[in-house]
Amino acid sequence: MSFNEGGIYLRESNYNILISNNIITSILTGLALRNITDSKIYSNTIAHNPYGIYSANISNNIFADNTIADNEYCVLLKHSYDNVFYHNNFINTYFQVWSVNRNSWDNDLEGNYWNDYEGKDLDNDGIGDTPHFIDVNNKDNYPLMGSFSDFNVTSEYLFQTVCSSSISDFQFNGTAIRLNVSGENGTTGFCRICIPTALMNATYKVFANGTEVPYTLLPCSNSTHSYLYFTYNHSTQEVIIIPEFPTWSSIFLVLIILTFAIVICKRRLPKTLRLFCCS
After folding, report:
1. Quick check: helix, strand or coil at residue 242?
2. Residues 133 and 211 in one domain
3. pTM, rounded to two decimals
4. What percentage of the chain has pLDDT greater than the value 70?
5. Mean pLDDT of the region 178-187
6. How far apart (Å, rounded) are the C-alpha atoms in residues 76 and 73?
7. Which residue, among 149, 152, 154, has the nearest Cα to 167 in the 3D structure?
8. Tens of pLDDT along 100-120?
9. What is the count of structural domains for the chain?
10. Confidence check: pLDDT of 248 > 70
11. Which of 3, 13, 94, 159 is the Cys-Cys partner for 32 at CB 3.0 to 4.6 Å?
């Protein structure tokens, strides 16, 4: 195979570079890399090529958020080691990975989506319970159960999803999240969505085509991000996520506090003024 037939071709000791937001389709090799170190390959779509990514002598690079689909060979790593792959989608590929050396296929928390992964997700967190085996030197310890997607809603924040459905029309209006999910009729879909708490920090309500569906707030949630997991029936569903309004009990508690404050305030007023206020 010749490197000069690649859609993007980099060689000769490149380092600290960024390859992102490219769509590379229908050529011999989508991305050809040689002698690349300490670089980032993010958010690219590489599809319908005989070779998706072909590399020689690359190390310490990060491959994340890429979709590599419908290629005959997905990733070929020749004399390449200590590269990290996570949050990538490997879909409908005859031969997914060939690697002589050891590389990392997760970030110690989450890995990649492999459409031929046969493991289960019994704890319903969007991550497979068993590793995805690649070869004796390589495995994904935390394979994703659905495709990974990033949705930039502001210059600072983004939503991330792991979903077994196709997602379209993702919107955030400052209060509510809206998206369409679709899949084969009669099947059950799931979605795990990561919500920045700086944008929505509350308990939530989740609706699918107007019907409220239960969700699980996953243990990985923290002060900066909430992780919601919910399921629904396919075909196409409009999913809406909104902050939950205060319950009647919390409203009642606020009224009690206000009443108590008014009583204390009246007791502290001069007698003549209290008579005026109560007349």
Report:
1. strand
2. no
3. 0.84
4. 85
5. 95
6. 7
7. 149
8. 899 999 999 999 999 999 999
9. 3
10. no
11. 3
